Amino acid sequence: MDQEQARKIGERLRSARRQRGMSLRKLAEAANVSVGYLSMVENGHRHLPVVR
After folding, report:
1. Which of 8, 10, 37, 45 has its CB surrounded by the most CB atoms within 10 Å?
2. Integer Cα distance of 42 and 52 in angstroms
3. For 17-34, what is each residue's pLDDT tens digit?
4. pTM of the predicted model, to two decimals?
């Protein structure tokens, strides 16, 4: 995954979270990840693990 793909995925994740009225903290708790990690994913600074 390149930086542009990570940015686009982060934007889509943030958009979906906001459309559902979910806070960053609530989604992080539900996904069992830290708020900081989730924030970095949404900003395209971290990549989500590939699940196959």
Report:
1. 10
2. 21
3. 999 999 999 999 999 999
4. 0.82
